[in-house]
Write the structure tokens for this entry.
Amino acid sequence: KDGDWIKEHPEWFYWIKADVEDRRPGEHDETKYGNPIFSQEELNSIIHAVDRDQLDNLIPPHHVYRQMFTRPPLPEFVKKENGRWIGTLADGTRVRISGAFADWPPHDSQPPWGDVTYLNLYYHPDFNYIAYNTIRMYDRRLARPEYVNKMLWEKIAEIIPHYQHEFGIDGVMIDMGHALPMELKHEMIRRARVIDPNFAFWDENFSVNEQSVKEGYNAVIGYLWSDQYYPERFRNLLRRCSAEGFPLPFFATPESHNTPRAAARTGGVRYAKYAWATGNFLPAIPFIHSGFELGEQFPVNTGLDFSREDLEHYPAGRLPLFSEYAYIWTNKEQFTDWISRVSAVRRKYRSLVVDPSPGSFLCVDAGHHDVLAFARTNQEEGKKLLVIANANMHEARNFHIDIQTKRHTIVDQLSKKKFAVKHSAVRGKLAPGQVVVFEV
């Protein structure tokens, strides 16, 4: 909210009356500024309409919210006061830049993003406010060519080329790219790839679907970080790898800046090591969120998969996304050696692992519902990799898997422990959270 563009182009931003107070997390006072408040009936109607792509006449925020917003001041009447931009309208009304909040769903419980704001991508007098229908699920009455803020779109489309020319970057993550109009995203991607045809775009999207492919992305965050924690959901994800695959790569990461830390999940560091090992042998992109390798438990933000109790325990003032924080650098349970070991095995079998075709992936019955197993195969190379994991973080589990091999023993690539093969089967016991990887 202190950016230079505000003084240069105040009409690119949303302004509210300076005397309107910000609503604090947990408050429900509609006279204070925050994400618009809707009744349960309104929320049901909004979500129903959006789910069906019925964006022609979306429910707007209440009048008390919309009347907080004003027209923009002229550039010569915008000045810095105590570190923030304040504008003055012709009638003497003092105005300020309004802060941001999570765009969807309308009742999202994330703390407000008070240090940043939204850009006004379309000019329309009836939609001069920040809400789900003006910043993401654009009402079709608003998202029309004649209302496009052309100078702003041009400025945005030139950002990535600037960094390509000045710093030689070869890819970007579009944070909240889902909130940008499709036409603008296509132009951003087009310009970047005129300069570098291999320029990579990563979508901050927790779904893995064809839409991201249509928009020109190379990869998405995806939802492994969530499903991996729930054994039956993880098993279903493995089945999808085997049955139909995914339209583009997703990130094999047990956590992100918006999720619980892996080491804060049940099992602690044991779970984090289990998640890293199993994820590395999927046709996905291994990704380390800073602090994961240290066994860090404190979340960066409470955006996804947090309970109401978690939100009370981690108020915005304590979260590293908004405040200063130091990692637990001296944690004795940090596991960089494990990360390196798993990565080395993945690199050894890279051609098997990165193959996204369903034919390269086989779900395997391991003889116990807590034990997940899958194989990666390549007929041309004649190799097969078998991954077996105990999803129970508290109790050891036995496994029994039929395999086709002429070997009498197979070796776990992670621990180097040998397992006997008898009558075309391998049996063993896995410690809580243990993962083994065999070449068979």
Residues 231 and 286 are 20 Å apart (CA to CA). The chain is about 25% helix and 20% strand.
